[in-house]
């Protein structure tokens, strides 16, 4: 669609041109930038618009005054562009490439808003072409899909681990130092292993715990009361108390034994999740004696005796 400084009519000659300029800085090994700009299957921007978007993408990344090539691919269900540029500019200077991935994501989001394109808010598994991915990417998406499908039906991390194991996915924990405190989680299928956050940011250990807690609370809020209304509460204990009082008030209540037992089960599950999240250590070793529970009680007792005198 557009080039600068290379012979676009023959890909072999184009490669030679890129390499020739790279030799101005032979010490720069990774001298070529390759970015892919993908569009939603329903979007069909004009070639002029696509070229403008790709050119702005390079410029905002600071990749200027250098060779580049913008290629349009329509061989898949979604239109996409390959943007290739030389990281050694026309004057032989090296173009900075630090945090290119992060900056490229931000620039793409800006361009998406400016041109009113459909944003990639989440992974759309129905639009994912696994056959076009390498083995490493396929493994990552296999884990992503397995977690996405199982998480909504899990009540704890251990429940998720068991379900993933049945699909050939192993789970490993990262602990803090020599303690049993869990800091992170990773998943492995075949020879490929990924941190939870590499699968998706919401699949870090903390993210999974949060999702499980939210899912269990949603189950509690969806238990019906006598009037078939949701029992709103800010804690599992409060929800359980409400259902228990309704059940005692009227043995013929529409709150069935099934709903009662379900709330009790969810209450136990929520406590288990909170235990995994918090795991407090009850110790006063690090406190001055007067601030410990025993010291505080003795202090109050002495003050009480003084008032009696």
Explain briefly what this protein structure is:
The chain is α+β, with helices and mostly antiparallel strands and 309 residues long.
The count of β-strands is 7
SSE-based structural type: alpha+beta
- SSE run: EHEHEEHHHEEEHHHHH
Distance between the termini: 96 Å
By DSSP (H or I, 4+ residues per run), the number of helices equals 10
Q: How are the strands of the biggest sheet laid out side by side?
A: 1-3-4-2
The global form is elongated
Q: What level of helicity do the residues show?
A: 40-55%
Q: Which radius of gyration do the C-alpha atoms yield?
A: 29 Å
Q: Roughly what fraction of the amino acids lie in strands?
A: 5-15%
Number of domains: 3
Sequence stretches where pLDDT stays below 50 over 5 or more residues: 226-233, 250-256, 276-287
Mean pLDDT: 77
Largest pleated sheet: 4 strands, antiparallel
Region (Disordered): 226-255, 284-309
Biased composition (Basic residues): 242-251, 297-309
Domain MobA/VirD2-like nuclease: 3-117
InterPro entries: Endonuclease_MobA/VirD2
Describe the protein's topology:
Blueprint: E1 2-4, H1 11-22, E2 32-38, H2 47-60, E3 68-73, E4 80-86, H3 100-114, H4 135-151, H5 157-166, E5 170-175, E6 182-189, E7 192-195, H6 196-199, H7 205-221, H8 236-249, H9 257-278, H10 293-308
Antiparallel strand pairs: 1-3, 2-4, 3-4, 5-6, 6-7
Helix pairs in contact: 2-3, 7-9, 8-9
